[in-house]
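Researcher: Quick test of sequence recovery. Tokens follow.
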């Protein structure tokens, strides 16, 4: 594994290919309280690119271009949160997307364990460490442990997606999953507009 640290934005000449795994790190899980600090990406080749964003201006045109590129599929785990953070802080709608958490919930109906650690263990035979999950991602200098953690969250999403796609196809749920993925940016927009705690599809 090689981790490439970039400050502010992706390099101009970096081509990550047609399918990119993406995750983000923030100072917390509240949209308007907690800033977006780090975005990590992997093309599935064993390398990870970690961007330490410049706050509060978020001047990262190359990253924004990638997030909105209709020819590049972006893989997330619980994409709803990352996509919302990108809408809020970067001002872009991320499409097209694939969420391994949604795919897991549709395919792995025999369990209620759909966190990345559990999904990675079963679908990619990888045991992820979550020791740095709660750490200061706004620090001026990220530690080697933080960089390794950030990289681990995206390095295996391609393999996880491949396995979940097999399961979705076997159960006849591929199109249902795709429709859910297409709705994710709208779900994130609802979160930002104040419906984050409300299921608008519920009866009451």
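Model:
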């Amino acid at each position: 594994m090689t981790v490439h640290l970039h400050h502010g934005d992706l390099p101009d000449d970096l081509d990550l290919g047609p399918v990119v795994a993406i995750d983000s790190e923030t100072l917390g899980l509240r949209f308007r309280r907690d800033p977006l600090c780090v975005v990590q990406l992997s093309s599935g080749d064993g390398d990870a690119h970690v961007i330490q964003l410049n706050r509060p201006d978020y001047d990262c045109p190359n990253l924004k271009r990638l997030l909105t590129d209709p020819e590049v599929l972006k893989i997330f785990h619980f994409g709803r949160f990352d996509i919302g953070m990108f809408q809020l802080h970067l001002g872009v709608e991320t499409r097209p997307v694939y969420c391994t958490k949604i795919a897991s919930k549709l395919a792995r109906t025999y369990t209620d364990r759909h966190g990345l650690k559990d999904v990675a263990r079963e679908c990619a035979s990888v045991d992820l460490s979550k020791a740095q999950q709660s750490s200061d991602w706004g620090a001026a200098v990220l530690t080697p442990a933080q960089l390794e953690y950030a990289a681990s969250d995206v390095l295996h999403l391609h393999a996880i997606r491949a396995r979940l796609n097999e399961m979705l196809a076997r159960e006849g749920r591929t199109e249902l999953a795709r429709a859910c993925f297409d709705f994710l940016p709208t779900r994130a927009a609802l979160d930002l507009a104040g419906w984050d705690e409300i299921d608008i599809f519920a009866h009451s």
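The CA atoms of residues 4 and 49 lie 5 Å apart.
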